[in-house]
DNA sequence: ATGCAACTTCAAGTCCACTTGAAGTAAAGC
DNA sequence: GCTTTACTTCAAGTGGACTTGAAGTTGCAT
C-alpha cells in the first residue's frame, strides 16, 4: 500500500490507537470530518491524526466530547484554524489541565501525610478530620472532595 | 439535633457532599457499611465520613469503584484496618496518582510548546507530527495518546 | 474476474456510576 | 397525636462514550 495522501478509517484508527467505531462516532458528533470516495468510503486527510490526538488529550484532562466540540467550534465555519484560534483553544484547556494537576498534587501531598498515620482506622488524622468539628453545617472534608471524578 | 455518635444517610450525605442515593449505591457495592436502627434505618459511624472521602479521592485518581473495593478488601473481614493495611492501600494509589500527574504534566509541556505553533492548521508541528513519517506501522503520536481518559 | 478484507449504515447493546420514582415506614417537632 | 420530613426497598431510567451485530457494498491483489 503506497502511502497516499488520504487515510481510510482503518488506517486512521491504527495511527491513532482507537477503534474505527470510535472514529465514526466522533464523526457523527461533528468532531472530525471526512471526504468520501466514489464508493462512499471515508477518506481522512493526514491532519486528522493530529486532530484525534488533540481530542484524546483533551479527554484525558477531563473534558467531555461535547465540551471539546464546543471549544473547537470557536473556529469559524469551514475556515482553516489560525494560530490565534488554536491558541485560544489550547490555552483554555491549559487552564483546566493546571487545575487538574494542582488538585492531584494536593491529593498526593495529603496522601503522603496519610500513609503513615492509619487514618482509616483512627480518630485522629488531621487531614481527613480537618474541619470535622468546625463545619457542622454540611461541609465535610472538602479538600479531598470537590473536583469530582472526571 | 444533638450531634450523636452516629449519622443518618442524610447527614452523611451532607457531610460528604454526595447524594444519599450514592451512599446507598456504595453500600450495595460493599464499599461502606452501616448499622440499622430498630426501624431499619441506616446509621453510620463518623469514620464513614473519612471512608467516603477516601473513595472520592480514589475515584478522582481514575480508579473505578470495583478497583477501589478491590484495594480496600485487602483489609481482612471485620477487622479494623491497621496502619499497615492502610499504608499498603495508599501507597498503591499513590503510584497511580504519580503516573497520572506525570502524564498530565507531559501533556501540559506539549501543550505549551504547541500554543504558539498553530498545530491544528499546519503541516509542521514537531510535537504532533513526531513519528508521523517514521512509524508507518500503526503508531501515531503515542506520546499524546496512551493513558486513556480516566 | 474473483475473492476477501475492509468498508457502509443503522439500531441496539454495554459499562459505569449513579439518579429517579413509586409505594410504603420511621422519627422528630409541635 | 399528628404532621412533616427523612427514611426504606426495588425496579427502571439516565448519560457518556463507545461497541457490536446484521446485512449489504467497495476496493485492492492475484
TrEMBL record, chains A, B:
<dbReference type="InterPro" id="IPR009061">
    <property type="entry name" value="DNA-bd_dom_put_sf"/>
</dbReference>
<dbReference type="GO" id="GO:0046872">
    <property type="term" value="F:metal ion binding"/>
</dbReference>
<dbReference type="InterPro" id="IPR000551">
    <property type="entry name" value="MerR-type_HTH_dom"/>
</dbReference>
<protein>
    <submittedName>
        <fullName>Redox-sensitive transcriptional activator SoxR</fullName>
    </submittedName>
</protein>
<keyword id="KW-0408">Iron</keyword>
<dbReference type="GO" id="GO:0003700">
    <property type="term" value="F:DNA-binding transcription factor activity"/>
</dbReference>
<dbReference type="InterPro" id="IPR047057">
    <property type="entry name" value="MerR_fam"/>
</dbReference>
<dbReference type="GO" id="GO:0006979">
    <property type="term" value="P:response to oxidative stress"/>
</dbReference>
<keyword id="KW-0479">Metal-binding</keyword>
<feature type="domain" description="HTH merR-type">
    <location>
        <begin position="6"/>
        <end position="74"/>
    </location>
</feature>
<dbReference type="GO" id="GO:0003677">
    <property type="term" value="F:DNA binding"/>
</dbReference>
<keyword id="KW-0238">DNA-binding</keyword>
<keyword id="KW-0001">2Fe-2S</keyword>
<keyword id="KW-0411">Iron-sulfur</keyword>
<dbReference type="Pfam" id="PF13411">
    <property type="entry name" value="MerR_1"/>
</dbReference>
<dbReference type="GO" id="GO:0051537">
    <property type="term" value="F:2 iron, 2 sulfur cluster binding"/>
</dbReference>
<dbReference type="InterPro" id="IPR010211">
    <property type="entry name" value="Redox-sen_tscrpt-act_SoxR"/>
</dbReference>
Amino acid at each position: 500500500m503506497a502511502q497516499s495522501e488520504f487515510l481510510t478509517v482503518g488506517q486512521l484508527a491504527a495511527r491513532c490507537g482507537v477503534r474505527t467505531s470510535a472514529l465514526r462516532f466522533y464523526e457523527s458528533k461533528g468532531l472530525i470530518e471526512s471526504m468520501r470516495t466514489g464508493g462512499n468510503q471515508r477518506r481522512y486527510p493526514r491532519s486528522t491524526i493530529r486532530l484525534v490526538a488533540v481530542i484524546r488529550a483533551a479527554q484525558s484532562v477531563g473534558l467531555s466530547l461535547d465540551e471539546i466540540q464546543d471549544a473547537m467550534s470557536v473556529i469559524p465555519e469551514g475556515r482553516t484554524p489560525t494560530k490565534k484560534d488554536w491558541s485560544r483553544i489550547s490555552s483554555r484547556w491549559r487552564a483546566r489541565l493546571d487545575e487538574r494537576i494542582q488538585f492531584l498534587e494536593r491529593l498526593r501531598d495529603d496522601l503522603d501525610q496519610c500513609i503513615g498515620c492509619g487514618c482509616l482506622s483512627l480518630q485522629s488524622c488531621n487531614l481527613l478530620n480537618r474541619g470535622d468539628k468546625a463545619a457542622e453545617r454540611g461541609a465535610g472534608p472538602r479538600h479531598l472532595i470537590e473536583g469530582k471524578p472526571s
